[in-house]
Write a structure and sequence with these properties.
InterPro entries: ABC_transp_permease (IPR001851), LivM-like (IPR043428). There is one protein chain. This protein has about 350 residues and is mainly alpha-helical. The two termini are about 45 Å apart.
Length: about 350
C-alpha cells in the first residue's frame, strides 16, 4: 500500500513538473534560443552597443515597471539609483581617478554599492509613499534633479562634471568581461534573472499584496496589511534591480558622470517603460530595444539628411505620443489586441474561441 502511495506521489510530482515546463510559451523558447545563438551571426557592435545596452536599460526600466505596474507608483528616480550604484563602484573600487577611488576589491565594492543604492531607494520610497499621483512623480523628479546638480558641483567625492573614467569590470575566471561577447552574455544573464525574479515576486504573496494595495489601499489596510511598509519594500526591491543595471551600465561605458543621471536619461527610462508596456515585465526590454535602435541609427540618418542629430529626441517624442495615443499599454497592448482579434491568447498562442 505504501509503495502504491509513493508511486502515486511521484507520478503527481512528475505531472506538476511537466505542466510547469509546458506552461512556458513556445515563443519564449524561441527567443531564448535566438539570444543564446546571437553571437554566431551578430557583430561585436550589435552585441554590445545594441543588445547589451538594451538589456541594461531594460533592467532599469523594469524596476520602474515593477513600481508602476504592480504598485501603482510612478518613480522617476530609478536612473538616479542606477547612477548611485555606478558611482559607488567607481569611488570604492578602481578607476582612472586615483586621487578619489579607494581601490577596494570587487567582492567588497559591488555588494557595498548595491547596499547603498538599495538604502537610497528605501529612503526615497519612505518619502514618496506619503504622496500619490502627480505628487509622487514630482518628488522623485526633484530628488533626481537634486542628485544631478549635487554630483556636478561636488569635486571632492564625485569629481564634479567629469565624473570617473576607467571603471572596468573585474577580471574573473580569466575573462575580459568588457569584451563584446563576454559582456553580451553577462548583461543577458542579469537581464533574464531580473525578469524571472520580478515575474516570481509578482505572483508571490508580497507581489499579490502589492497589487491589492494598488487597486484598493483602504481595503487592504482594513484587512490588516501595512500599506506603507509594502510600498517601501517595493522601492527597495526595485532599487536592487536598478542598482545592478547601473553597475553594468558603468562597466559598459567604463565611466560614470552626472550626465548619466541627468533629466534626459531620467525621462528616457519612463519613455522606455511606457513604450514597451507597464503591465508585463517583458515590456521594458521591448521598449529599451526600440529606444536603442532609434538612438543608434536615427542620429546617423538625420545627419546624412543634413538635419541635426538632436532631433532624435523629437522622433522619440513623436513615437511615444503615437504609441500612447493608439495603445496606452504600449507595444504589448497593440500586440495583445491584434492576437485577441484573431481569437488567440497573446502569450501562449492558444485558440481562445469556445468550442462548438
Amino acid at each position: 500500500m505504501n509503495g502504491t502511495l509513493t508511486d502515486a506521489a511521484r507520478s503527481n510530482d512528475q505531472a506538476l513538473s511537466a505542466s510547469w515546463y509546458e506552461r512556458i510559451p513556445t515563443a519564449y523558447w524561441i527567443i531564448g534560443a535566438v539570444l543564446l545563438l546571437m553571437p554566431l551571426v551578430a557583430s561585436g557592435f550589435v552585441l554590445n552597443q545594441i543588445f547589451g545596452w538594451s538589456f541594461i536599460l531594460g533592467m532599469i526600466a523594469l524596476s520602474l515597471m515593477f513600481l508602476a505596474g504592480y504598485g501603482g507608483m510612478v518613480s522617476l528616480v530609478q536612473m538616479t539609483i542606477a547612477a548611485i550604484a555606478g558611482y559607488m563602484v567607481a569611488i570604492f573600487g578602481v578607476s582612472s581617478i586615483d586621487t578619489i577611488s579607494l581601490g577596494w576589491p570587487w567582492w567588497i565594492t559591488i555588494p557595498l554599492a548595491l547596499m547603498i543604492a538599495v538604502l537610497f531607494g528605501t529612503v526615497v520610497g519612505a518619502l514618496a509613499v506619503r504622496t500619490e499621483g502627480i505628487y509622487t512623480i514630482m518628488i522623485t523628479l526633484a530628488i533626481a534633479s537634486a542628485f544631478f546638480y549635487f554630483t556636478r558641483q561636488n569635486y571632492g567625492v564625485f569629481n564634479g562634471f567629469s565624473g570617473f573614467n576607467g571603471v572596468l569590470p573585474p577580471q574573473l575566471f580569466g575573462v575580459d568581461w568588457r569584451g563584446d561577447l563576454a559582456f553580451y552574455y553577462l548583461s543577458l544573464f542579469w537581464a533574464v534573472l531580473a525578469y524571472i525574479v520580478v515575474l516570481y515576486v509578482s505572483r508571490a504573496p508580497f507581489g499579490l499584496t502589492l497589487q491589492g494595495i494598488r487597486d484598493n489601499p483602504r481595503r487592504m489596510a482594513a484587512l490588516g496589511f501595512n500599506v506603507n511598509a509594502h510600498r517601501i519594500a517595493a522601492y527597495a526591491f526595485a532599487a536592487l534591480i536598478a542598482g545592478i543595471g547601473g553597475i553594468l551600465l558603468t562597466w559598459q561605458s567604463a565611466q560614470i558622470s552626472p550626465g548619466t543621471a541627468g533629466t534626459g536619461p531620467v525621462i528616457d527610462i519612463l519613455v522606455i517603460a511606457v513604450i514597451g508596456g507597464l503591465n508585463r515585465p517583458i515590456g521594458p526590454f521591448i521598449g529599451a530595444l526600440i529606444y536603442v535602435v532609434l538612438k543608434t541609427f536615427a542620429i546617423d540618418i538625420l545627419t546624412s539628411l543634413g538635419m541635426s542629430g538632436d532631433r532624435f529626441q523629437l522622433l522619440v517624442g513623436i513615437s511615444f505620443l503615437l504609441i500612447v495615443f493608439f495603445s496606452p499599454d504600449g507595444i504589448l497592448g497593440l500586440w495583445e489586441r491584434w492576437r485577441e482579434s484573431r481569437g488567440r491568447d497573446p502569450l501562449t498562442g492558444e485558440n481562445q474561441k469556445e468550442a462548438p
